[in-house]
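Incident log, support desk, overnight shift.

02:14 A customer reports that sequence design results differ from what the structure should imply. Their input is reproduced verbatim below. On-call engineer (initials T.W.) acknowledged and began investigating.
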């Protein structure tokens, strides 16, 4: 009897921990957070009438309960699994553990977001020494039965009993050698039978326990094994990188097994409904005849192309599914079309062909490169499959930066043709050059030393995740375009070349050789990979700007010459149409301002004027302005700096004509300007007309224990008012001059690190007076605004008072985060990684992430965000026209930008190359906000 169509009753009397799906079962609540992406996909495909083996899903909440309750199942879970198992037996017409007609099941992980290869799966659960005989009869294929059994023993031992899989791989290798075959597929039935014995023996020896023969025991332990895999190192590292919290948990999907390893009319494969590397509209994938489960992605045998197009792209001469099983291929394409129609997005599917019948085992939104994301959104929009709002949501905001990253220069590649070593699959576009490293550990080591490297591996497994993050690019000898290496690299935005079958590693000699031409590369020597073409060069190659940069900034390409640019522009134009938040840039030079404008900035939200003082030519006068003994000398130095400052502002105003430019008054920790060497001190003494001793004395007297909380920000402008006056004069004179040239200028003067209204009142008084003097002197006025940064918790709380003197607030969330948490921006690196990585937590015996994310990168909405809301409310109560923005680093981070939209800020400001990210994130926030209403 099927389970009732119970709604999810979290925390209620009888919580539902398990949901059945399949013929006769009501569709479970299609909630990804509850069922995981895989579970939801299967339940949904079943509801759509697609061919899916039936099964049941243990929810993510059961996993979370397990994790936080001393690794125990929640009450009722066992009974619910038993009931679902009975349902499944009825649906399949066979029984779990039956000796004559056994039901076998797969037990698979599936979190709410896809984490390719990071968690575990056990296939063929239910097999034992007796049911394997029944399976042989049922399949009329003894070989397939023992092939399944040996797979099951190895997977179960690894995932559930923690036996290192290397022992099984060695035994398998030895067996192939004995039998004189190259691939597992060549092993005879007898060899597989012996292998099963040997595998059990390995298990028993390593665990000190008999291999379990009781199917229910196998099932419940496999469920626990999958739960545990949520917290394994690679899964945690993956979550850290992508910013997913540890407390989501994984669902467990239990499904009736279908058999791809039944003979030549069976097989298994994976595919994408469009090319995930380039976005081209053709089915993309690989399959293996007579194979099961992970065989395709694990790179054990070279997979066959799914269709003729794939064969062409990969240069494979193996027969494709399109040619060997044309009807199945047609059906698969049709399923792909139906899925895209349903999900309005590119899908990543897994399928098995059992005795000539197609079964869909998974569908999920396919991971793709930034290039593919933009093209797919562009194409689907033109195909009428999605509307503009959906197109905006299709591209992960951070992925657009991939389109701006450098590529190799064609001419350099031609020049380096003698160093062209080999070619593989172009699995992740972009160019990467660096030292060759052959292990993940080495890649991490290189990264720590700040040396770029390319990770080269026979094949990458998900354990290599940390190395893949550390490397500039990834190159593998084995594995196809859908291998874990390719999928993960795409998610990370790393250039990736896969399946370079020519590479022969010699780990003892720390070198790699190219089989076909004998070229040799030692570990540490330079290598370059082109993930767009699949080329591998044994030399270092210079990169050049992306096509988008060539069109927009360098102007070396015309827009109509670049398809990529047109796709990018279409999506960005749509984003601009839907977003409400204005996007500005943080830029300190006319060049940066011009770049920002080309990338779509609608103004400059932060000019850090102290950066203009770092120039060697000006440094002496800056030091004299701070450190001279007499006020006259300090003022004189300030006056000498004024023309330089004005020059800078003239350039920025001209570049940003017609747009707002927010200039922040000086905010330097003064120690940054101190001369450090004796030579520099002597030079300064000469410049200031004083002695070396005096310079040293001054240095000592201004040394602060904590300069970030010291004499900086407006505190400096109050102590040295002529600095504020000089800067205001420079800003306003430049603005008037540019305005006289006929350009519109909209300067905003921003006072930093304000904590009290009196500080702003003081600075605003100086600014206004100086501006009036300049207007009088120059005979022309320009409109300007005065505002402040909100960087201190006190400023947020006092926003009502401070707003009396402010036309605008700009949230300086770098300092606001520092001061809210009491974590020094400069010293956070000492412990923040540990907080984010997690620490062992005694009471749950598990890893506890103290912070879900790095708060200097992703805005802390609960703490810092709360202060922002308070400041917004109190500030606007005093001044309803108060303009609100953000200019901390968070202004270019997707989730933080969405938060800024939600709390009603007017603009966000970020570094120039993140402007497209902010534009897209702001549009996504607007579109998502509308669809919530
Ligand atoms: C801030 O504190 O967020 C800010 C933008 O100022 P800075 O990073 O220069 O301190
Ligand atoms: Mg600051």
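02:41 Re-run completed on a clean worker. Output:
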């Amino acid at each position: 009897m099927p389970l009732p169509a119970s709604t999810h009753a979290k925390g209620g009397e009888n919580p539902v921990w398990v949901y059945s799906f399949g013929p006769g079962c009501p569709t479970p609540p299609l909630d990804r957070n509850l069922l995981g992406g895989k579970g939801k996909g299967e339940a949904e495909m079943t509801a759509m009438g697609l061919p899916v083996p039936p099964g049941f899903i243990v929810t993510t909440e059961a996993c979370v309960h397990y994790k936080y309750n001393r690794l125990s199942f929640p009450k009722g879970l066992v009974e619910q699994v038993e009931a679902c198992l009975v349902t499944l037996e009825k649906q399949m017409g066979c029984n779990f553990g039956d000796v004559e007609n056994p039901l076998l099941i797969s037990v698979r992980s599936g979190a709410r977001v896809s984490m390719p290869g990071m968690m575990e799966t056990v296939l063929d659960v239910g097999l034992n020494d007796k049911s394997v005989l029944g399976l042989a009869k049922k399949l009329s294929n003894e070989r397939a039965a023992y092939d399944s059994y040996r797979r099951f023993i190895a997977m179960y031992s690894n995932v559930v009993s923690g036996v290192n899989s290397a022992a099984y791989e060695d035994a398998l290798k030895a067996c192939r050698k004995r039998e004189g075959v190259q691939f597992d597929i060549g092993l005879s039935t007898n060899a597989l039978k012996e292998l099963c014995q040997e595998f059990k023996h390995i298990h028993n020896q390593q665990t000190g326990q008999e291999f379990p023969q009781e199917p229910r025991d196998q099932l419940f332990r496999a469920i626990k094994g999958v739960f545990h895999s949520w917290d394994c190192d690679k899964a945690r590292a993956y979550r850290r990188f992508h910013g997913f919290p540890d407390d989501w948990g994984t669902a467990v999907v239990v499904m009736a097994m279908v058999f791809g390893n039944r003979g030549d009319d069976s097989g298994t494969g994976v595919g994408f409904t469009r090319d995930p590397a380039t976005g081209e509209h053709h089915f993309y994938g690989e399959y293996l005849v007579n194979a099961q489960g992970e065989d395709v992605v694990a790179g054990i045998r070279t997979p066959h192309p799914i269709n003729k197009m794939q064969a062409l792209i990969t240069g494979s001469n193996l027969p494709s599914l399109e040619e060997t099983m044309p009807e199945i291929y047609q059906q698969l394409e049709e399923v792909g079309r139906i899925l895209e129609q349903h999900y309005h997005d590119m899908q990543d599917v897994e399928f098995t062909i059992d005795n000539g019948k197609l079964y869909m085992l998974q569908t999920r939104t396919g991971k793709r490169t930034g290039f593919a994301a933009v093209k797919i959104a562009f194409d689907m929009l033109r195909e009428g499959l999605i509307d503009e709002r959906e197109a905006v949501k299709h591209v992960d905001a951070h992925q657009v930066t991939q389109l701006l990253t450098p590529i190799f220069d064609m001419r350099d590649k031609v020049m380096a043709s003698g160093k062209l070593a080999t070619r593989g699959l172009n699995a992740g576009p972009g160019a990467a050059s660096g030292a060759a490293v052959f292990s993940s550990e080495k890649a991490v080591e290189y990264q720590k030393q700040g040396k770029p490297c390319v990770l080269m591996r026979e094949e990458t497994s998900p354990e290599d995740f940390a190395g893949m993050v550390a490397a500039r690019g990834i190159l593998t000898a084995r594995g196809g375009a859908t291998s874990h290496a390719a999928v993960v690299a795409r998610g990370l935005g790393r250039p990736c070349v896969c399946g370079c079958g020519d590479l022969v590693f010699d780990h003892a000699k720390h070198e790699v050789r190219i089989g076909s031409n004998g070229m040799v590369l030692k570990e540490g020597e330079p290598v370059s990979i082109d993930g767009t073409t699949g080329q591998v060069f044994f030399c270092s190659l210079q990169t050049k700007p992306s096509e988008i940069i060539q069109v927009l900034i360098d102007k070396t390409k015309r827009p109509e010459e670049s398809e990529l640019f047109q796709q990018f522009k279409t999506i960005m134009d749509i984003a601009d149409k839907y977003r409400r938040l204005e996007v500005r840039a943080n830029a300190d030079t006319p060049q940066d301002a011009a770049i920002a404008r080309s990338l779509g900035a609608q103004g400059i939200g932060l000019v850090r004027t102290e950066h203009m003082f770092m120039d060697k030519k000006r440094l002496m006068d800056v030091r004299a302005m701070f450190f001279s003994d007499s006020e006259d000398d300090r003022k004189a130095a300030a006056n000498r700096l004024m023309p330089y400052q004005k020059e800078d502002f003239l350039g920025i105003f001209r570049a940003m004509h017609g747009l707002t430019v927010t200039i922040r008054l000086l905010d330097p920790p003064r120690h940054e300007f101190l001369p450090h060497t004796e030579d520099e001190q002597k030079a300064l003494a000469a410049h200031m007309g004083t002695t070396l001793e005096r310079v040293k004395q001054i240095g000592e007297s201004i040394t602060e224990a904590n300069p970030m909380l010291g004499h900086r920000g407006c505190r400096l402008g109050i102590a040295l008012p002529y600095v504020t006056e000089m800067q205001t004069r420079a800003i306003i004179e430049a603005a008037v001059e540019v305005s006289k040239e006929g350009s519109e200028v909209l300067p905003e003067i921003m006072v930093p690190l304000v904590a009290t209204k009196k500080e702003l009142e003081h600075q605003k008084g100086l600014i206004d007076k100086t501006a009036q003097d300049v207007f009088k002197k120059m005979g022309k006025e320009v409109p300007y605004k005065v505002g402040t940064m909100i960087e201190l918790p006190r400023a947020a709380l006092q926003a009502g008072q401070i707003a009396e003197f402010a036309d605008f607030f700009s949230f300086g969330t770098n300092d606001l985060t520092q001061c809210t948490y009491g974590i020094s921006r400069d010293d956070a690196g000492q412990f923040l990684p540990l907080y984010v990585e997690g620490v062992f937590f005694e009471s749950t015996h598990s890893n506890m992430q103290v912070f879900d994310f790095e708060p200097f990168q992703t805005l802390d909405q609960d703490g810092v965000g709360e202060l922002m809301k308070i400041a917004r409310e109190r500030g606007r109560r005093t001044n309803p026209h108060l303009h609100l923005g953000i200019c901390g680093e968070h202004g270019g981070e997707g989730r933080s930008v969405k938060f800024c939209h939600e709390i009603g800020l007017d603009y966000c400001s970020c570094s120039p190359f993140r402007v497209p990210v902010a534009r897209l994130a702001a549009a996504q926030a607007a579109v998502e906000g509308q669809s919530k209403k």
